[in-house]
Amino acid sequence: MTKTPPPPITAGTVINDRYDIRQSLGKGGMGEVFLAFDRSTQQTVALKVVREESRMPGDDEALRQELLLARSVGHPNVCRVHDLAPSPWGPILVMEQIPGQTLHTHIRKRKAQGGYSADEFRKIASEVCNGLAAIHAQGLVHGDLKPGNVMVSEGRAVILDFGFAQERARASARRPGAPPDGGTPNYMSPERLRNGGASPEDDVYAMALTLWEMWTCRVPEPGYKPRVKTMKQQIMFDVPAGLSIDEVRQIFRGLNEDPSMRPQARHMRFFNPSQLTTSPIQLPRERLDPGPPPGGALKLNFTPGAQSLLVTYATNAPEIVGSLLPLHDTKLALGRRSDQSLCVPEATVSGAHAILKWQTGSWFIEDQGSTNGSYADFNYERKSQVSLLHGGEVQVGECRMKLVTFGPDSPQHRRAKQYLAKRDGLTGLLVREHLMKAIDEDGLFADWAEVPMQVARYELRGPNRQVSERPTILEMLALRKAAQRVIDLTEMLLLSLTPAVAGRTGPLKFVVSIVGPSIDEARHVVEQVVAQVQGMLPETLELGATLVKGEPGRPARTLID
């Protein structure tokens, strides 16, 4: 017997004796969304109804997953999903009803009114970034971020319709001419247009294009490349004129064709940098995560292998950088000889260099009269004993090690090795290969935004430079301290929202990119930095600096040496 289909859903239809339909809000690939009044909670909600004719095996499970995923996010800039229920018309997803208009409509209205103000742009950009970061924090991707999937409601931007990328792909593949993996081609990254597949990096590209559309008031064509022409040739209203250099640069970086060069959503920031003078913020820099601190039980009772030493730097044995030395006993001998409990094959580590002892949650490193000494972090003197807490570093000879709580081949260990492949473990600065890419990106941005760019080249000088290119341990320790302080001061003086591009270029040399300020302003910053850092150095060492001006069209990497 053929089942009689229910009548079409219209204003006045009551679903499940509970949801009183008020109006249709729009149709999508998998169904239709309605505005409804929930008689039970006495609240207005949005209902997504999956039409029977468009259903396929697995849809019910996919909808259940969407409910669970949406509930796991729980963020004010992401639409809340309340419930999933069967109905005569098919499964219904009950969602938060967000009054207002889509960002697509909002952009069209602002176009007629003369564009966005800088602060209005900042607020929407910041909230979209925060919502996307919350989605990514749960290990999810959106897969179809665009102005039409962002609601602007009473001053709040809310991301809609996420966590359904795989199902959206399946549904859209049923429609002739639809892209093979769902989404909207106008906002897809180059790699997704080529190969398909949603990813966090593709989401960031879509978000950057969405924010770009707020400047241009034009929907981008599929595959459109905003970085090919200068910014001002393409924008309709000069919103960027009211933003900081860093805010504009984040969008430029988000539009990079290389997904590895795009920032993460959680690192993107949009607000007035003049506020930083009264409320300093933590810059979202990449760092070596030592893992979670040991709990109370580990502090009272020793657990073999619960902590390890991660090798972060070795002058003469770069192949051991990133390796882990598990701490499997309360007393361990460390040295270069193979009979030591912890064997470190670095030429400047003595055969029997130090003894490690565990005492109620702390490690103590006792130097055994080594040739090249043991050093605490940010200290120039040799130490007979070094106390090492979770996340702390110690240097033995010319080898640095960090106390961590993760094990070999764990996800944290893999991330640590990725970090150390890009960054010099002594200073935390980019290694040359990655510095080249990052500094070229700054140069391309300077050309695109038509702003000045300079590179500050720093060098530590001392009496040993007359004799050898090989740094002494004192110089290594001074380089670490100087480089980190130079970066901090530069970012503070420039009121940075994003970490400065900086890298090591020689035994005692490093560079810092400065984009935005004029050559005179940049020179003033460098002079202040040198004056302050010089006071932290040993008397025998001097920090020198030169400033090199970038030229439009010239690769920025040529300014490094």
UniProtKB/TrEMBL annotation:
The record places domain FHA at 332-381
Concerning Gene3D superfamilies, the annotation shows: 2.60.200.20, Phosphorylase Kinase, domain 1 (3.30.200.20), Transferase(Phosphotransferase) domain 1 (1.10.510.10)
Q: What is its EC number?
A: 2.7.11.1
The record's section on InterPro entries has: FHA_dom, Kinase-like_dom_sf, Prot_kinase_dom, Protein_kinase_ATP_BS, Ser/Thr_kinase_AS, SMAD_FHA_dom_sf
PROSITE patterns per the UniProt record, alphabetical? FHA_DOMAIN, PROTEIN_KINASE_ATP, PROTEIN_KINASE_DOM, PROTEIN_KINASE_ST
Ranges for domain Protein kinase: 19-275
Task: Alphabetically list the UniProt keywords.
Answer: ATP-binding, Kinase, Nucleotide-binding, Serine/threonine-protein kinase, Transferase
- Amino-acid positions noted as binding ATP in the UniProt annotation, renumbered to this chain: 48
SUPFAM superfamilies of this UniProt entry?
Protein kinase-like (PK-like), SMAD/FHA domain
Pfam families assigned to the protein according to its UniProt record, in alphabetical order? FHA (PF00498), Pkinase (PF00069)
Any idea what this protein is called? Protein kinase
Which organism's genome codes for this protein? Sorangium cellulosum (strain So ce56)
